[in-house]
């Protein structure tokens, strides 16, 4: 349903006038407030009930969380997400739902049916974009009930990353289907992973209500006043095992996995498919070992 004389749903126009970045910073601040224990417990349990959160796999009990953000970024029990045993497999870096996937053709990726966006806009780096043109991508949406820590798709090391400030449109279906070039407009932090099979990239996209994006290998934090775009080379590469934690979303969002031509072969995926951290989403191409 759309408003008479307008082409988008009413919620789109509400989001259009909302001060999205400021609103998201306020949400992040509130999520970090130490509330009275009874109020915090009640808020967490209400969220759990509404979004059907599985607390049995969480490391901590509800009574142990000191803030709502601690609950939202909760860690899982060690055996909650087994990694695919095939060392040539590409792991899903998060829990979530497959938004889109496929080939990167002529520098374009699919946002949703009928909507494309440019790889060079997403990476904000024309030279690096050429490395991934002709490769493949997978977009994974993290819903409110999902585990919100982000892990490595492959074993390797991080020697470089980029941060691009931007807007904070919702990455829900409302935004994905109605905001052109959404993922290239929103704030994002991109980790470049160097494995023995070459480089791949993990783009963490900000969104409305996402208080912050954090990573383990640097003190860069997203969603700050006066933020500027950065391309940073680490003095000492940060080594990662496959499935090891890279960072987290403090409130939810989307990741986009990028792979250069002929590096990997995607498994059969379906739009909207539910996937879990550590599940195989593809495997390194046999041509790399030839």
Automatic annotation (TrEMBL):
<dbReference type="GO" id="GO:0006646">
    <property type="term" value="P:phosphatidylethanolamine biosynthetic process"/>
</dbReference>
<keyword id="KW-0444">Lipid biosynthesis</keyword>
<dbReference type="GO" id="GO:0004609">
    <property type="term" value="F:phosphatidylserine decarboxylase activity"/>
</dbReference>
<dbReference type="Pfam" id="PF02666">
    <property type="entry name" value="PS_Dcarbxylase"/>
</dbReference>
<protein>
    <recommendedName>
        <fullName>phosphatidylserine decarboxylase</fullName>
        <ecNumber>4.1.1.65</ecNumber>
    </recommendedName>
</protein>
<keyword id="KW-1208">Phospholipid metabolism</keyword>
<comment type="pathway">
    <text>Phospholipid metabolism; phosphatidylethanolamine biosynthesis.</text>
</comment>
<dbReference type="InterPro" id="IPR033177">
    <property type="entry name" value="PSD-B"/>
</dbReference>
<dbReference type="InterPro" id="IPR003817">
    <property type="entry name" value="PS_Dcarbxylase"/>
</dbReference>
<comment type="pathway">
    <text>Lipid metabolism.</text>
</comment>
<keyword id="KW-0456">Lyase</keyword>
<keyword id="KW-0443">Lipid metabolism</keyword>
<keyword id="KW-0670">Pyruvate</keyword>
<keyword id="KW-0594">Phospholipid biosynthesis</keyword>
<keyword id="KW-0210">Decarboxylase</keyword>
């Amino acid at each position: 349903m759309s408003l008479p004389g307008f082409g988008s749903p009413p919620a789109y126009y509400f989001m259009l006038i909302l001060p999205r970045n400021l609103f998201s910073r306020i949400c992040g601040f509130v999520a970090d407030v130490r509330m009275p224990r009874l109020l915090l417990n009640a808020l967490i349990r209400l969220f759990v009930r509404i979004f059907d959160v599985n607390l049995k796999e969480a490391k901590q009990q509800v009574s142990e969380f000191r803030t709502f953000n601690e609950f939202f970024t909760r860690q899982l029990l060690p055996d909650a997400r087994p990694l695919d045993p095939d060392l040539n497999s590409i792991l899903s870096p998060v829990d979530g739902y497959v938004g889109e996937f496929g080939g990167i053709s002529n520098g374009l990726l699919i946002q949703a049916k009928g909507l494309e966006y440019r790889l060079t806009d997403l990476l904000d780096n024309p030279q690096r974009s050429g490395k991934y043109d002709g490769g493949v991508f997978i977009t994974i949406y993290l819903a409110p009930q999902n585990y919100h820590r982000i892990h490595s798709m492959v074993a390797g090391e991080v020697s470089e990353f980029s941060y691009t400030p931007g807007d904070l449109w919702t990455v829900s279906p409302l935004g994905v289907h109605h905001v052109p070039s959404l993922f290239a407009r929103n704030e994002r932090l991109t980790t470049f992973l160097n494995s023995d099979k070459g480089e791949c990239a993990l783009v963490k996209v900000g969104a409305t209500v996402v208080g912050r994006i954090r990573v383990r290998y640097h003190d860069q934090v997203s969603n700050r006043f006066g933020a500027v775009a950065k391309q940073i080379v680490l003095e000492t590469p940060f080594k990662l095992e496959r499935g090891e934690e890279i960072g987290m979303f403090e409130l939810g969002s989307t990741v986009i996995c990028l792979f250069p031509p002929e590096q990997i072969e995607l498994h059969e995926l379906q739009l909207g498919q539910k996937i879990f951290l550590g599940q195989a989403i593809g495997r390194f191409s046999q041509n790399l070992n030839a």
